Amino acid sequence: xxxxxxxxxxxxxxxxxxxxxxxxxxxxxxxxxxxxxxxxxxxxxxxxxxxxxxxxxxxxxxxxxxxxxxxxxxxxxxxxxxxxxxxxxxxxxxxxxxxxxxxxxxxxxxxxxxxxxxxxxxxxxxxxxxxxxxxxxxxxxxxxxxxxxxxxxxxxxxxxxxxxxxxxxxxxxxxxxxxxxxxxxxxxxxxxxxxxxxxxxxxxxxxxxxxxxxxxxxxxxxxxxxxxxxxxxxxxxxxxxxxxxxxxxxxxxxxxxxxxxxxxxxxxxxxxxxxxxxxxxxxxxxxxxxxxxxxxxxxxxxxxxxxxxxxxxxxxxxxxxxxxxxxxxxxxxxxxxxxxxxxxxxxxxxxxxxxxxxxxxxxxxxxxxxxxxxxxxxxxxxxxxxxx
Amino acid sequence: xxxxxxxxxxxxxxxxxxxxxxxxxxxxxxxxxxxxxxxxxxxxxxxxxxxxxxxxxxxxxxxxxxxxxxxxxxxxxxxxxxxxxxxxxxxxxxxxxxxxxxxxxxxxxxxxxxxxxxxxxxxxxxxxxxxxxxxxxxxxxxxxxxxxxxxxxxxxxxxxxxxxxxxxxxxxxxxxxxxxxxxxxxxxxxxxxxxxxxxxxxxxxxxxxxxxxxxxxxxxxxxxxxxxxxxxxxxxxxxxxxxxxxxxxxxxxxxxxxxxxxxxxxxxxxxxxxxxxxxxxxxxxxxxxxxxxxxxxxxxxxxxxxxxxxxxxxxxxxxxxxxxxxxxxxxxxxxxxxxxxxxxxxxxxxxxxxxxxxxxxxxxxxxxxxxxxxxxxxxxxxxxxxxx
Amino acid sequence: xxxxxxxxxxxxxxxxxxxxxxxxxxxxxxxxxxxxxxxxxxxxxxxxxxxxxxxxxxxxxxxxxxxxxxxxxxxxxxxxxxxxxxxxxxxxxxxxxxxxxxxxxxxxxxxxxxxxxxxxxxxxxxxxxxxxxxxxxxxxxxxxxxxxxxxxxxxxxxxxxxxxxxxxxxxxxxxxxxxxxxxxxxxxxxxxxxxxxxxxxxxxxxxxxxxxxxxxxxxxxxxxxxxxxxxxxxxxxxxxxxxxxxxxxxxxxxxxxxxxxxxxxxxxxxxxxxxxxxxxxxxxxxxxxxxxxxxxxxxxxxxxxxxxxxxxxxxxxxxxxxxxxxxxxxxxxxxxxxxxxxxxxxxxxxxxxxxxxxxxxxxxxxxxxxxxxxxxxxxxxxxxxxxx
Amino acid sequence: xxxxxxxxxxxxxxxxxxxxxxxxxxxxxxxxxxxxxxxxxxxxxxxxxxxxxxxxxxxxxxxxxxxxxxxxxxxxxxxxxxxxxxxxxxxxxxxxxxxxxxxxxxxxxxxxxxxxxxxxxxxxxxxxxxxxxxxxxxxxxxxxxxxxxxxxxxxxxxxxxxxxxxxxxxxxxxxxxxxxxxxxxxxxxxxxxxxxxxxxxxxxxxxxxxxxxxxxxxxxxxxxxxxxxxxxxxxxxxxxxxxxxxxxxxxxxxxxxxxxxxxxxxxxxxxxxxxxxxxxxxxxxxxxxxxxxxxxxxxxxxxxxxxxxxxxxxxxxxxxxxxxxxxxxxxxxxxxxxxxxxxxxxxxxxxxxxxxxxxxxxxxxxxxxxxxxxxxxxxxxxxxxxxx
Lengths: 388, 388, 388, 388
Hints:
Chain A is α/β, with parallel strands linked by helices. The first copy, chain A, has helices at 5-12, 42-56, 74-84, 111-131, 152-168, 195-205, 224-233, 259-271, 294-313, 317-325, 329-340, 345-354, 361-368, 370-377; strands at residues 16-19, 61-65, 87-92, 135-138, 143-144, 175-179, 189-190, 209-214, 237-242, 282-285.
């Protein structure tokens, strides 16, 4: 099947949330390489995010990370975003960089540290309220490095208590989204290591607690699309953190490592209603452009998602269902592969032109002079990174 | 700390369930090597299991696998077990060897196949009732080999429906235990691949549905003791299938591949109350003795569990809690390691003697002439294996 | 870039070797499902392989497995192949199904067993000479299941000795190809677990010893195209065993699990001269069609390889080299992805028509009545499988 | 078997090399937590290393990392070490933190960068000559993050050329030790990803090129002791970087994650002659004490190695060989496990006392006041870490 106008209408409704931190410097424990033109503050990050949206038309919101994106005047930042044509999205908390969090935050053995971690989240909710953001995303770096270091079960109980306090502070239109991660930075155990644990806590919290699925946070070989299916089926998929990986949490550009996996994930999203307006599923990027350009990295990511979604829409679902019904293993697989191998790029380029966007957003960016300008203008100050 | 009399009393209450099929032939897709003396029928399997219990005093029950252990007269088999000093334990269903199950059983696209699979489980419940068994264990080989082959979500819905029918047929004192498995024999997706999926179904079924944790059924690197902790915390750990692995579902002798992992798992069992009489946790072995002796393989397994549990009991939990409380990473870890490195073997040998058991059950078996006798007597007929 | 006539000339030279055993039954340790129409002897396997070649024009040779394909009259089998338009390719030895090989073959602690294993290989060389085959492929199931079971180093020394004897028996135009495998059927250690070990033995043997790379025989996450590159660079890549996997040695259809990985592998093949006439690289399939049709499974595999190779040929290598030279990370990656996403299928269909072949070999097979005929005719006898 | 006096004599010859950087701060990409008392310069690192040696008697040398340990007066540092009772060991190069190395060093597409990387190594050789160090250890962070980013094969050729230049500059008594790593910081491919690649380069270089095996640098499930065996067999094992891991390159304390794996590795060391005086195998630690104390972390590591080696020495090798010879799978395994489960700690404590060392080096350190003193004295300046 080919891309139809109806498919393109569906794609027009796609909103990919970009992370403010993707525009800052990032790296590995071995080295963070600095990049010319990198933003010095949240306002400049918003500018870069707005540039990506202007070129792709598909990235209307920007996730913030507190305290990396803490500003004195939140309203000014919110207005700045609006003026640039984007809005503030998910607010991400951070309880892994203050010295008190060395052995954990919400799961820490010390009640004082847990209290500080809860209060940080309450402050994040204030930012949500000020910015109009509806999602509080919690990724915890909590865990241990050595067996015996702490009591796994007591930590779960502490977590339950902390999350309940935070959840209770949300306004009725706000949600808590709990992310899980297989490992790193903790190397023996992670307090929310898998979707089962995240779901367990969400069920205990209430209806507005959802699971965040980061595509890089699983054990080797995990069938991620199965989890997508299951969470959609249970009505508990809150958001994606899209990226890709060959090994661990590599945070590479989404679709770069295993494009067919991205196809299968998006096929389950469509199958499970995740694209529908009321699904409540947020499509966020969470990546590190360690060695490639930050803005180009984000443009590429947005394009990868929309192109792959277009391939999914080309799937002949009626023929597929029929092949599945009759147990035609190879026939059904072939129908799926036919969609994957469809070259949707020319039609999408044309569609962009029809929408007043550049046919080739990457070429348009490179020709725009934007990068040269920020490298020229953003001199002095401290480049944004994970530490600030 | 050393093993105390109180610890030994705790160990005396340990009951390890052995699987009938461990005494039959098993192998890989490449070859099943036959072993002299292997049982030809369920009665002879019971004999071998009784031999293991007689030597160790810790293996009082035998799990059956239907139809491998189907007999004309179930009562006779039950009596045979009682006469040999053991009893029938968990009943395991099998919906992966009939030709109709090529594309699944409870999740199959065809309603007729699903019906047959449900009926097989109802027949298993009849066996439970006849034998006095309280647990129906369901491990499904259901899954697909190729993306698109079937609809992942529809299969979950079919599974929900089939399990509900089976669960409804249980007597009030009977339980359904749902096992999960990462992969194999299906190579793209498995319908119950992880504890989260198993738990989800158990929650939907009711209080008497529990999760079975097979220690070989996880992705590489999975922290299994965390799952043990979580399921105990949620009151949903139904049983263990103990074995060990270096790579996939290798089904080696429990404790053979990574003894420290077994220690950590058992430490969470004790921590979470899994040893207590009312915990409802069944300790079962599920192994394949492909190249080693079957009965010695089971003796070794039983000994490995009890020895490791003894090491866990040596743990100075008060000192550990105190070290954890003060955030003493290395101190806490050292307390755990000290228990692991304690040599409990001499005291356990003495304890066995005190209980009227051989100090060295393996040596006693080798000296007993049992193996020579069954090799001599079990001539003719068809050796038991996975196919019969 | 698009597929050019020159590219198509290159593709016309492609020769994919099919394995005789792909047409027989296969399965897992849990169950081998029988398929109607499966060959009863090597002659019928050749018939099916010839059918695949007739429809695709790209599968002119058939690998045999001894003793599965042992026949009284090898010359008759060779002639039968020629009459059907194919020829006998690689001869694969088998030292894992005789009872004496329970603890190994060339690495076995017992000299008598090692001698038998060597002699089996000498018999295989006789078959090679009779069939005109130039490659002896050795995959050893040798290994151990438990630490301490045998002496890892002594086994290497025994292996060295056995291989040397076999190598010495080869005619000057014959080669020894040594396959490695990460695990299975041995679950603690494998005697040739990785390409480094295989290479080490090949270097010790001589120029006509090469490494066989089975794409399913690596640890999770292994960068297989790197190994392809390295072996081509060292002049020691002897052959591929193509298949695909999500977890372990799943033996799924090549290109089914991670198409982009197949693309990268083939890109390194082209880059390293592996397509050139004198490269000595054999492209073999080694798969198990457990639940899908055997002949369709082979047709799909052949098509997947040629389609992916066509995408590789679309790569703009000049532009890629230039982007790499200037350190343009995303630009270089994009050039690669552009080739991967090129839809080569229509041009290949046309090309097949130009060559007098069906545009759609799969549809042609389904319409041919071949399957119905063999299901009708192949009644009685014993279906071929791994055991015979 | 028990530890004999002969065994203790063997252990007395053990020399574990500690890394200077273990005493500085380290962490993950998320956070480097600072620790009070951490050294500000290489002299203070030597002091801490000397403390570990004074307490254990088994850590007589310190590996340096250039430029982290670059000092104006190398002779002064060498004398400082001698005065503290230790000596300078392996010199580790570093080509991953200068901005020019963003896309590689010895494998970089730009000849100028490659030249700089070679020159850095020549400067390291100068340090070796000045300090009397005999080993230049090269771990390259070189690799790529995205397929197509660079030419895998051209990078190998550049690597070959660079290594040859460096090797040629070594004095006749100096060695080049080439480390391999599965992934990180590069996330698509690593230029020296496995032992096969490292060995290939060593063979091309000459007799004094050896492989460095870091126990954390392998794919999940890799049988590391097999590689140890193979490299010893080939005479190419140059050194260990000991640490342990649950997931990736976690750099935890050696023996902490899987003690039985450490046992098996050391058993192959002993089996292969790696403990003998002329083996040329260097036993180095390479760890990150991110959340635990640095000096206690090193003490624990040294003790773990010696304790595990003591268990290995308890192995009844004659009985093992006999059990292996007769194919007694479980018997042989049991002999191995018996050694592993032997409690060697009391005898080792006594042995330390006999040698004039504290029976419990960890308790002695904690009681010594050393930590309190350095926390008091090391105020001001910049704490050492990976960046300086």
